[in-house]
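Next up, a specimen:

>
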Amino acid sequence: MKKNKKNEPMLPQELETISFIEALDDGYVHDCRIVSEEVEAGKIHFDRVLFESVRFLDSEWERSEFADVVFVNCDLSNADMSRAVFHRVKFENCRLLGTDFTEASIRFTHFQECRLDYAVFGFSHINEVSFERSVLRQGDFYEVDLKNTQFLDCELDESNFTGTSLKGIDFSTSRFEELQLSSELLSGCKVSTDQALLFAQKLGLIIAE
C-alpha cells in the first residue's frame, strides 16, 4: 500500500478545542478538537475530529461512522465498534485492548504504535489499512476480507487468521511464534525465511535437518 496524502485524514488546519458534550449535536460531532477527557459515547457520526489523550469509558459505538478522524494517545480498550465505518482514520499511540471491530468497514486507516492485543476484527472488511509498529497479540482476524493491508514491524503472536485469504499480505517484517491460519489460503503471502518454516509445518511438510 503506497502512502498517499489523499488517503490521510483530512483535518482543517485550525480546530476549535471544546468538550465532548459541547461538540455533540444530535448524534453528530464535527470540526473540533477534544482533549484530556473521559468520554462515554453511543452511536455517533464523527467528521473531521481530533481526539488527544481521551479515555473512552465502556463506549458502545456499534454502527457509528468515523470520517477524517485522528486519535492520539487515547484509550479505547474494550470499546464496541462493531459494524462501524472508518474512512481516513488514524490511531496513533493508542490503547485498543480487546476493542471489538466485528463486521466493521475499515478503509484508508492507519494504526501506528498501538496496543491491539485481543482486538477482534472478525468478518470485517479491511482495505488500504496499515498496522505499523503495533502489538496485536492474540488479535482475531477470523474470516476477514483483507485487501491492500500492511503489517509493518508488528507483534502478531497467536493471532487468528483462520478463514482469511493472505494473498498479497506481507508478514516478513513482523514477529510471531504461532499463528492460526488456513493452509489453503496462504498462497501469495510474503514471509521471512524463518517464518517460512512455520508455514511449511502448517502445510504438513516434514523439513529435514
About this structure: The mean pLDDT is 92. Helices lie at 20-23, 193-202. The radius of gyration is 18 Å.
